[in-house]
Structure of CCA tRNA nucleotidyltransferase 1, mitochondrial-like isoform X1:
Amino acid sequence: MLAGVFRSIASGLKHTRIRPQTLQHYLALQSLHTNRTMKLDKPEFKNLFTPELNRLSELFAKYEYELRIAGGAVRDILMGKQPQDLDFATTATPEEMKVMFEKEGVRMLNTRGEEHGTITARINNKENFEVTTLRVDVVTDGRHAEVEFTTDWKIDAERRDLTINSMFLGLDGTLYDYFDGWTDLQNRRVAFVGDATKRIQEDYLRILRYFRFYGRIAEMPNQHEDSTLEAIRENAGGLGGISGERIWTELKKIVVGNHAAPIMRCMYNLGLPKYIGLPLEGNLDEFDQVYARARDLQPRPMTMVAALLEQPGQMDDIITRLKISIEERKTGLLVMQLRREGEQQTEQLLKHYQGIVLKTPGTEQKQMSDRVCEVLKYQGDASLLSELQTWTIPRFPVTGKHLMEKGIFFGAEVGWVKDKLVALWIESDCSLTFEELMARVDDLRKEVPKEIQEKAAKKKTRFAKKMKTDK
Ligand SMILES: Nc1ccn([C@@H]2O[C@H](COP(=O)(O)OP(=O)(O)OP(=O)(O)O)[C@@H](O)[C@H]2O)c(=O)n1
Ligand SMILES: [Mg+2]
């Protein structure tokens, strides 16, 4: 029977450039070939063929350039996942593509990819396609590369990071796999193409890409290969030269991905935190626990990162090193501030959290509510979380303008009175009406602390003077 398998594989090989190496590979190849027509029916593959892609494909065929889907999209299709973005590789040089597209009246978008061989074509004014000339990176500084074009598919595959990301898929459904990516994918093995050290030194971000894909692909949490870990350990420092934006993009996916807790431990063991803004003494036990209870509640990446931090000051290192958004920073700080409150009484907690939202200025209430939800995810409190998520934030009926109409002009005073009104309103379960609230204003005003009253009085005098001189 095996002989038959080998025979039919051998006949399949005539049409492909797959390099068979192991028995397992032969078998994988066999299934690939017998399934070849079925593969064309695979929804993840079939769905790609919009009229626009068909047009692109016809154009390249007409000019006799080869065109294949490359890298991550091939990996996704083979895993039965619809790829998010498609990258194409071609034997045509950027110049040749430009001539072809111009002749055929296809618009090209001005992107900055050209020096790396990428042309973006917009077909039928509807769909953009990024097509990159096969290339080899001749000079790399660990971040950027100077490239040379080639027509050799294997050379292009060799400069890619992981075997599972190094495959090409012809538009006729043929898989081109030079580094056993398909076998690795089936075995859930994440490995660099060829020499790990070399691949990492070409772009140190690949260290984090390795961990991201490990989470995505590997079945077991701790099955890294020793040689891979060694290469990472030796090159960890290279991450120091990578931009905060790129690091954060990868880190965000790692901390909410599969196996995030053991992966984080592994990253700490290899000495990565120092180079990526994470605290040197990150609280890994807390990270483990939070991951276990929050994972299914879809936490934001910053919620997970907060688990590593013990003091708000550590957020400053993150802000300095990584390009996190203001919202992410606010989320992290709120989580750190409130994370121990879950240890209080449950019935009071919901009210307490709703109060935090209601005391926030109207325009920011929804965001604050989402941030508080992150606290609940951190605590793993699914029932309180769903109560807060389904809660419709009631509108506080009194505005600053209403108070000004009552003769309170000055910011600090308006703020103080409004805060007190909000507190009364929350206490009443949001049942006090506009009239009932306004009826409390005069009394509250008398309670405004002295220093605020004095400041208000001073401002009032200045204001009055200004009005006089302006006249
Ligand atoms: N540092 C990098 C980044 C990318 N690539 C190659 O370029 C492809 C496309 O890169 P990208 O879209 O960034 O990653 P994907 O692998 O497609 O992953 P994702 O699904 O997250 O887009 C990768 O598959 C890989 O072949 C690489 O070798 N080294
Ligand atoms: Mg991609």
The longest strand covers residues 127-133. Strands lie at 67-70, 87-90, 107-109, 118-123, 127-133, 135-140, 145-149, 168-170, 175-176. The CA atoms of residues 316 and 354 lie 28 Å apart. The pocket of cytidine-5'-triphosphate (ligand 1) is lined by residues 71-72, 84-85, 87, 160-161, 165-166, 203, 205-206, 209 (CB under 6 Å).
